[in-house]
Amino acid sequence: MTETATMNTYEGMFLFPQIASSDLKAAQEHVEYIIGRGEGEIISLAKWDERRLAYEIKGNRRGLYFLTYFKATGDGAIEIERQVNLSEQLLRAMILKADLVPADVVAAADAREELAQEIVERAAAEEAEAVASTISSREDFEAQQAEVSKAQKAQQAELDAKAAEEEKAEEAAEAADRGSGDA
Prior knowledge:
The chain has helices at residues 24-37, 74-86, 103-108, 112-134, 138-182, and strands at 8-17, 41-57, 60-72, 92-97. By secondary structure, the chain is an alpha+beta fold. It has a four-stranded antiparallel beta sheet. Helix 1 crosses helix 2 and helix 4 runs antiparallel to helix 5 (138-182). The chain is flat and about 65 Å long.
């Protein structure tokens, strides 16, 4: 008789040094990597807040928090804890079993699209700042700003299309589930 491992829902709070706010994408990817190493499935992920710490941790007085909900087996959660302890990028992390947290709370905590938008905006702002420091004439600067704006709009359109595609896939899956439930 083969036992299948049950997937539990967990809540993870990951604390990065303040410097991580300059590269949000790398911080997000690190959280995804750690959870992936434990064969976890991310349900929701959000950049929670950047705050002053109550006490200094590894020379840091401020930190950036990421809140995530994920599904993993018990063994997977142990592996995730191990990866957290091995990570040199994280200051701290706390992982709690969250099976009793309502699904609507978990879904409401998902801010991956907002995080992706913030990453795009920060990259555009950095690019605009770099362009402004190297451009000598006002006309050249305005032309560069128009190009940056166009690139931002294209990236936003790509994000919107991806979100719409994911939404259609979810609706199709729900329709298929309803269809199979009727049969």
